[in-house]
Amino acid sequence: SAVISQKPSRDICQRGTSLTIQCQVDSQVTMMFWYRQQPGQSLTLIATANQGSEATYESGFVIDKFPISRPNLTFSTLTVSNMSPEDSSIYLCSVEDLGFYTEAFFGQGTRLTVV
Amino acid sequence: GNSVTQMEGPVTLSEEAFLTINCTYTATGYPSLFWYVQYPGEGLQLLLKATKADDKGSNKGFEATYRKETTSFHLEKGSVQVSDSAVYFCALLTNFGNEKLTFGTGTRLTIIP
What we know:
The structure holds two protein chains of two kinds.
Chain A: E1 4-7, E2 10-13, E3 19-25, E4 31-37, E5 43-49, E6 56-57, E7 68-72, E8 75-80, E9 89-97, E10 103-106, E11 110-114
Parallel strand pairs in A: 2-11
Antiparallel strand pairs in A: 1-3, 3-8, 4-5, 4-9, 5-6, 7-8, 9-10, 9-11
Chain B: E1 3-6, E2 11-14, E3 19-21, E4 23-26, E5 32-38, E6 44-50, E7 56-59, E8 62-65, E9 75-77, E10 86-93, E11 102-103, E12 107-112
Parallel strand pairs in B: 2-12
Antiparallel strand pairs in B: 1-4, 3-9, 5-6, 5-10, 7-8, 8-9, 10-11, 10-12
């Protein structure tokens, strides 16, 4: 299994500013993902964080708005740039154990409110 | 592409009632199926999983059986408790080099004493 520490757990930010969310895993993992969960909705994958190369973004998400770093196999950051109230969501880091029984583990999430 | 259709909520039940949350899926090949639970103010936790047809996943009194013929993975519990109040997500993972989870919309469950 994997234990994920995500911070901050919550923040209230002014529009036009940026917030960087950190995700630390207690073991080396190949695949790290960033999800967004808008109020009352399901999870939407933002991007796959690749170690040593640029992140792979899903349709509707761009690097300028959500830059991602993955400097090693245990750590990643997601930045939400030039925030607007529409960015108010829970942002979740996830890693996957690609053993025979694949399973995904999640951080506790970052609850972001943009005012 | 892959998709998960989940029973819409919110669902409100009395304590000790029987719970069913429906989940059906569309996927190519033979996906692994999961139920995740999100308690208030927390991230997602894996509740149970099944990796092949007719497998039954179980945990904390919850059960779900992988039904390939009906492409379903319904979540059941015989007697719910107040502490089961949470949001439940059905999800699938395909095994063709695309290791990204596909989630259902989530079902908010509230159990009243």
